[in-house]
Amino acid sequence: MGPKKLIHIVQSDSNSVPEPLGKWQKAYEFEFEFFKNFPSAHTRISYRSDIRQFIDWLKDNMPDLDGLHQAARAHLVAYRNWLQEAEFAPKTINRKFSALSSFFDFLVEKGIKDFNPVNSVRRPRQEVLHPTNDLSDEQVKELFAALEQKGPSMPLHKAIVYLLFSTGIRKSELIYLKRKDYKIFDGIPVVEVRAKGGKYLTKALHPECARIMDEYIDWMKDTGRPIHPEDYFFQPTKNPLQPGELCRPLNAKSVDYIIQKFAKIAGLTHRISAHSARASYIGSALEAGVDLLKVSSDVGHASVRTTQEYNKRRLKIKESPAYDLGYFDKKKA
Predict the structure, then answer these.
(1) Would you give the distance in Å from CA 309 to the centre of its chain?
(2) Staple partner for 50: which of 96, 115, 253, 288, CB 3.0–4.6 Å?
(3) SS (H, E, C) the chain
(4) How far, in whole angstroms, is CA 76 from its chain's centroid?
(5) CATH architecture of the domain formed by 137-317
(6) What are phi and psi of 11, to 5 degrees?
(7) Do residues 310 and 134 lie in contact, with contact meaning Cβ atoms separated by under 8 Å?
(8) How far apart are CA 36 and CA 88, in angstroms?
(9) pLDDT band at 241 (very low <50, low <70, confident <90, very high)
């Protein structure tokens, strides 16, 4: 297989018409075996983007390279250094290299490469350069208060904000939530989400959040757009490119826009994103005394160390252990 063919199948869109490709025969076999092997649609989109970026970087910076099949350890090291110089966060770099490592493992399996060049490349330490800004409990209340206004899409916006801050689910999990995932379990309103790694989480809803979710469902019915079990729960109110196609998931940027819009109305001036809701949920639960392991399991973290990274509320300078040393007088309350 020639390098141009290989680049073509990586860059081909999942909805494109396949073309014959030697022993693989069709491009869709690549799609099925590699990208479709990941159960999460969010992971497929992320991996495809990361692989494309690496290919574009090779084409722009390694003109003497005949194709992706010639990529070696030196190229991966140079790419990592370029990402670091471009000030990509360590977590982002590691995610990109995880995507590339999986991809090259696949190429080794298919006989395109003799070995995986990513395996011997040292990756940066998982340090958070720009931690997600969480909100204090009072700030979340101010954000909720900003949602108490009239507007054509307020039931949608309100349900999105409340669900994010009431459950700590990821933006991608919210986007792909379906109507059937919102249900009653043992008399308790819950949502079932498919989290990272293909895990399923059952998230209990606060009664106020459940009430707002029900109001959103009623609003959709009143606008002539009832949500059926297999439909996406949160749908856009307009689609400029395809006006008649509204039964689809929200764009990720729309969720960020909604959060930022009402944060601004609430007078919250620091950088806030949809992920701030997850950080606020974890921080509030831990500050209230909920067990770390319980919170970690609830949000679907593979390790409590990941959950602890969100625990910014307790890492205050005023609460330093230096004030509690036994050989000094205790600090005054």
Answers:
(1) 16
(2) 96
(3) CCHHHHHHHHHCCCCCCCCCCHHHCCHHHHHHHCHHHCCCHHHHHHHHHHHHHHHHHHHHHCCCCCCHHHCCHHHHHHHHHHHHHCCCCHHHHHHHHHHHHHHHHHHHHCCCCCCCCCCCCCCCCCCCCCCCCCCCHHHHHHHHHHCCCCCCCHHHHHHHHHHHHHHCCCHHHHHCCEHHHEEEECCEEEEEEECHHHCEEEEECCHHHHHHHHHHHHHHHHCCCCCCCCCECCCCCCCCCCCCCCCCCCCHHHHHHHHHHHHHHCCCCCCCCHHHHHHHHHHHHHHCCCCHHHHHHHHCCCCHHHHHHCCHHHCCHHHCHHHHCCCCCCCCC
(4) 25
(5) Orthogonal Bundle (1.10)
(6) -90, -10
(7) yes
(8) 27
(9) low
pLDDT tens profile 107-122: 888 888 889 999 989 9
Q: 102-116, 122-136, 140-154: which range is least confident on average?
A: 122-136
Contact 155, 279 (CB under 8 A): no
| Residues 295, 287: Cα–Cα separation, whole Å | 11
Residue spans of the domains in the chain: they are 3-109, 137-317
Which of 258, 267, 234, 237 has its CA nearest to residue 145? 267
Task: Judge whether residue 23 has pLDDT over 70.
Answer: no
pLDDT digits 0-9 by tens, 284-321? 888 888 888 888 888 888 777 777 777 665 555 556 66
Query: Of the given ranges (34-38, 123-127, 228-232, 256-260), which has the lowest mean pLDDT?
Result: 123-127
Using an 8 Å Cβ cutoff, are 262 and 161 in contact?
Answer: yes
Distances, alpha carbon 262 to alpha carbons 32, 236, 247, in Å: 41, 18, 25
Maximum CA extent, the chain: 78
Rama region for 119: left / alpha / beta (φ>0; ψ in -120 to 50; rest)? alpha
